[in-house]
Design brief:
There is one protein chain. Helix content is 3%, strand content 43%. The chain is an all-beta fold and 379 residues long. The chain has two domains: 186 residues, Galactose-binding domain-like (Jelly Rolls, Sandwich), CATH 2.60.120; 156 residues, Sandwich (Jelly Rolls). The strands form nine sheets. Strands 2, 6, 11, 13, 14 and 16 form a six-stranded mixed β-sheet that branches. Strands 3, 7, 10, 12, 15 and 18 form a six-stranded antiparallel β-sheet that branches. The longest helix has 7 residues. Its main location: other.
Length: 379
């Protein structure tokens, strides 16, 4: 398997003037679930033969309009919502033009599933905009075969073209990930609270989650160079294919579920005054998703900075409980990195194999100015 060169780059840069740009309001994109089917004259079996065959979208390369229950060899392809989805085969892409507000950050959510290779991935970007970002469709986190992923961009013009692309070349040109339920959400850049140095510590600003979703949205590796779909926060992982999950709690608010054990961490860097007295408060709990972990293997969350760390144990009943925890420290640097990670791996108690983990919520970091004596010692 190799990643092809840029033979289709010119196609991605084309914005069709005749296509009406969709206004980027919160929710599904026009025909984002691909239920508006192509005309049969532009199809060869399930394969799309014309770039304008899928209403509201342009397609390039080997794209298939997949019906739920369609067979691929001995495998039956399922669709998570409605009756249809798309499969992006050899070097294929889909794109849609959007009306946006320049300078505003948007998060794009989509569902995806592997069909052939273990290490499938998708690239996403907008034109005009930056370089493609990769989203790994590798580890399966749910029992239904589909996971929801998110990606974010900052608009550089009032009209942009969203591109989602399969960068791999397979011997079988039809092989590639399936995609469904493409949606968008405006992110307003959650400010810090009154005395809270953390931005978006309550996690109320994040990617679009479809109403009634049981699984939330996976947030992939995003470092300080990237635009995060979870305002204020980075997701650091090793390897960089691991994720955290953005979920809706039983109380109707939002939180982050640590589903990848120690392979992915939730991170934020803040300005601090060396020698000040700081206290990090946060909630550890479960998302009410039957993620049971007790007795000999409770959930364990490690919260840390460069100057101190603590491990919080939580015996989950899987019904939405929580405990409050704190970490006190005196920062030694003017920038402090706050890190949350889970130290174990967990699955739902229903034997489905769906991965789960502890949630982090309501995080706050409050610091008091250092005393005169402490300031003298730091000089």
């Amino acid at each position: 398997m190799v990643i092809k060169g840029a033979r289709r780059v010119a196609l991605f840069l084309v914005v069709c003037a005749a296509t009406r740009a969709a206004s980027a309001g919160d929710g599904p994109l026009p025909n984002g679930n691909f239920e508006d089917s192509p005309d049969r004259s532009q199809m060869d079996g399930s394969t799309v033969t014309g770039p304008d065959a899928i209403p509201q979208w342009k397609t390039y390369g080997h794209v298939e309009h997949i019906a739920s229950g369609q067979k691929q060899g001995d495998m039956i392809l399922t669709v998570p919502e409605g009756s249809y989805a798309l499969r992006l085969g050899d070097d294929a892409s889909i794109q849609q033009q959007l009306s946006v507000t320049p300078g505003t950050i948007y998060s794009v959510t989509f569902r995806s599933a592997r069909t052939c290779a273990q290490n499938e991935k998708l690239s996403a970007w907008v034109v005009p905009g930056g370089a493609p970002d990769e989203v790994h469709v590798q580890t399966l986190y749910t029992s239904i075969g589909w996971d929801s992923y998110c990606w974010a961009f900052q608009a550089q013009a009032s009209s942009v073209t969203l591109v989602i692309h399969n960068p791999f070349h397979e011997d079988d040109k039809s092989c590639g990930p399936m995609i469904d339920s493409v949606a968008i959400k405006t992110l307003y850049g959650a400010p810090q609270g009154n005395n809270n140095l953390l931005r978006n510590g309550d996690f109320e600003e994040g990617p679009y989650i479809a109403p009634g979703s049981q699984y939330g949205v996976l947030v992939p590796h995003r470092d300080e160079r990237d635009i995060s779909p979870l305002s204020g926060w980075m997701v650091l992982s090793y390897p960089n294919s691991k994720v955290v999950r953005y979920v809706r709690t039983p109380q109707g608010s939002y939180a982050v579920e640590l589903v990848a054990g120690g392979e992915a961490a939730l991170v934020q860097e803040v300005d601090t005054v060396p020698g000040s007295s700081c206290r990090l408060d946060f909630t550890v709990g479960d998302a009410g998703d039957n993620c049971v972990a007790k007795d000999q293997q409770p959930m364990r969350v490690q919260a840390s900075t460069a100057d101190n760390s603590t491990t919080v144990e939580y015996s989950s009943e899987g019904s939405g409980g929580s405990v409050r925890a704190s970490l006190e420290f005196k920062p030694s640097q003017s920038r402090t990195r706050v890190v949350f990670c889970s130290t174990g791996y967990h699955s739902k108690s229903d034997s489905s194999g769906t991965r789960c983990g502890p949630i982090i919520d309501d995080a706050s970091l409050v610091c008091a100015s250092p005393t005169p004596a402490a300031r003298r010692l730091l000089r």
